[in-house]
Amino acid sequence: MEELEIIVDENNYEIGIRNILKKIREHWNSDGIKFKSFTDGITNKLIGCFYTDPQTSRDEVLLVRIYGNNTELLIDRIAEKKNISYLHEHDLAPELYGTFKNGLIYEFIPGSTLTTTSVYEPSLWHLVATNLARMHKLPLSSEESAKVPMLKSKSLKFLNLIPNSLSDPVKNARNKVTFIDYEYAELNFQAFDIGNHFAEFPGIDSSNGIDYTKYPSRDFQFNWIRAYLEEFKESNVTDDDVVTLYKQVNKFALASHFLWTLWSLIQAEHSTIDYDFIAFGSLRYNEYLAKKDEFLNL
């Protein structure tokens, strides 16, 4: 893996990325490279690099992730690289081709981002459930096993990072599953991962509000959790197993709302991405309050 001493300007990225590609894709003719900025992410800037080999007509694609402004306050970038490499060894992440001073270069895997509709499709949710279970079964190193789940420490860290006042409170506003956002991966409770996933079934587009009536129903969660446990346990799954994890998952969905509320306030202060983080944080916090009593009493 290449480690390059290059800084890419997120507002004028083509020059920096071309310099990177000269190192890791020497056979690419600079004149034939095309770029596409993907706009779904709200932490980093993601650029697709496309090239067609003139000799073979073979299409090649890779992704360049440019770290968001001051996201090192939120994310352990050294751990991120280890996470991607480790998960790639187990076919749960793309290949990491290289790093530069403020970002990563990695494999492009064709596919579609889950939507608030497709996330309910049986063929897809079952893949998500079983692949998440596969990830949770991966062995931990002795160093990792000695750690405690990150939820408390991460929440406290985020609390300490929230500014006393916000300088800019409102901004203008296939048969395989591949996970993303490895920068946020840390040792944590398994029920938090599932609760966090369920909490995002209604989406994250806050421009027109988030419809939390799309939060998965009890019956759907039971089916999802059973598929997850069948892969995770590799043994008989009882109804009690499903109910126990269901209760834990929904309590941790509350923790997910709270954590991303804190994250939103920090991003509102530092991020240059055109996204209304304040609105998103407000929606997440209001949903936390709306579901708090119901979920804690399960």
TrEMBL record:
Keywords: Lipid biosynthesis, Lipid metabolism, Phospholipid biosynthesis, Phospholipid metabolism. Pfam families: Choline_kinase. Its EC number is 2.7.1.82. GO terms for biological process: phosphatidylethanolamine biosynthetic process. One of its GO terms (cellular component) is cytoplasm. Pathway: Phospholipid metabolism; phosphatidylethanolamine biosynthesis; phosphatidylethanolamine from ethanolamine: step 1/3. Belongs to the choline/ethanolamine kinase family. PANTHER family: CHOLINE/ETHANOALAMINE KINASE, ETHANOLAMINE KINASE. This is ethanolamine kinase.
